[in-house]
Amino acid sequence: MKVCLIGSTGHTGYVLKGLRGQTDADLIGIAPGSQGEETESLLKLAGDYGYTPIQYQHYTQMLDDLQPDIAAVACHFNDHAAVAIEALNRGIHVFVEKPIATTLEDLDLVRAAYDKSNVHLAAMLGIRYEDWFLTVQNLLEERSIGEIRLMNAQKSYKLGKRSALYTKRETYGGTIPWVGSHAIDWMHALSGEKFYSVYAAHSTKANNGHGDLESTALCHFTFSHEVFGSATIDYLRPRQASSHDDDRIRIVGTTGVLEAQAGKVLLINDAQPGIREMPLLPKREIFTDFLQQVRGEGPCKVTAEQSFLVTEACLKARISADEGRIVYFEA
Amino acid sequence: MKVCLIGSTGHTGYVLKGLRGQTDADLIGIAPGSQGEETESLLKLAGDYGYTPIQYQHYTQMLDDLQPDIAAVACHFNDHAAVAIEALNRGIHVFVEKPIATTLEDLDLVRAAYDKSNVHLAAMLGIRYEDWFLTVQNLLEERSIGEIRLMNAQKSYKLGKRSALYTKRETYGGTIPWVGSHAIDWMHALSGEKFYSVYAAHSTKANNGHGDLESTALCHFTFSHEVFGSATIDYLRPRQASSHDDDRIRIVGTTGVLEAQAGKVLLINDAQPGIREMPLLPKREIFTDFLQQVRGEGPCKVTAEQSFLVTEACLKARISADEGRIVYFEA
Questions:
Q1: A10: CB partners within 8 A, 6+ apart
Q2: Domain A128-328 classified CATH 3.30.360.10?
Q3: Which of residues 22-61 of B touch A (CB under 8 A)?
Q4: Where are the domains of chain B?
Q5: Who is most buried in A79, A141, A266, B197, counting CB within 10 A?
Q6: pLDDT tens profile B172-209
Q7: Tell me, what's the pLDDT at B331?
Q8: ipTM field
């Protein structure tokens, strides 16, 4: 399987790590996906991993020349859609940074290109393969807390000093799509419930000179079966904190409460007294799972439909926050 | 100071505990505040504390006969308002279970009676006097996390088997007012920000035969200065959990994050690396503080205005959840 990387902005590391040990797959080309994107450092990093991709200046040229099986797309966020469409129209499998698009119009175009294709598409929702996430998912499948009734998800990041890309809504797309997408994806993937509506708010206050970047956001999702989910999102994690992010989820079920925080998974249910810290399943690699589906060895945990739906949910939450109104999903 | 207790349903313990050691105050009367409320066990408990109140069948008779300085009101939730008004109209200070009223109309009537009076009124927002809450408040006053930008509050209770009062909206008032009021009060009191709008949802699913009682609720508040606050509320805490409740608050500021969970207060800011567990200030008694204001020795931490506003916020959140719309506060 021939793999090309388009862009050097997003989680390209998923591809470099996911390819390791995959003897039937190789990274053969790298090109920028957006104007002004440099690929020198990515090329060097790929070399450190032992890959020898050809460097292109134009990704369409690369796709035409190299005819890869898979395109991994991780350029400026507002260009994800156009690049993904170019690949889909050539019948190339697409592993694309989330959000897939920064507008609903662009998302519709990607969806239409995907529907006409016969390939796999998955968004880079890589946290789904972390040890704690896999453990939570497994415990839910084992019915350790019964039926899910309420979820509280958290994304908290250090802001640091970010590039100009992040400071303009047009290129960045917003904090709910960029950071919040994970939290929204977790709730959707773990519960299996359908999105019904979203109400959200966000603010650029205290963003330390980062222009349009929202430093705080809060989303309120209503899912099918009257299941509710909050996503609290911020860039205000202190510099002195021990990790970049503080990812959490709390899931309240009919017979127990399951939580992940600081990489630990905690369970309270009626089977045993007190809080139990659960043993973690091993971490996996998202791109390795993607390759498996392309090989026909079974479905990737991140489906194309989920990738589209989570992007739609993020964009509808952003619209809700921008316009101060409840936004509904199609039944 | 002569104190009468009206009702035996809510947090009467605040009065019994808060009176201890107050040599200038005594509990002199007890009466039911609602039809069918029994006061025998409360009378016995008062005796255990060393008080010898007179038992009345009708609280208006008690107020007229004993002419107390203070009436503590803790009857069926939908009767709080009418009883409080009777006391206010007699110029008696009122310490009343939250929510003060179960409808906005009743709340307006209490507010009008209060405005005409010259007494103190405070809702039983007793968690404000817990060691962890006082510690959080103190750390905020010391500017340990800068300006508040985002808050996530949690109330999670064991459901158990509750009386008929809880199973009817008319008498119970709803889970957002009864349980959520604390979480809503914390965010309002700690931030000092004004309520701007609320969006909320609640569900009676999985309430184990408790009729109208909502077992889950989620509220999304927007405060002044684009500060956002979530309140997640549930009755699904497992029986096997080590405590009845799982109260939490997380406060994200411009220079740090402050949290309270399981009675511990945790601070991360840029002054020192890592998470610090902060020493706790001593717990206090809400009714002792109430007595102080009545004596003229300084303001009670729970103001009348806060008591009204938090009740209003709860009822507007409940309206939002019932009707699926955003509800705004007056500027």
A1: A74, A75, A77, A97, A124
A2: yes
A3: none
A4: 2-119, 128-284+303-328
A5: A79
A6: 999 999 999 999 999 999 999 999 999 999 999 999 99
A7: 81
A8: 0.96
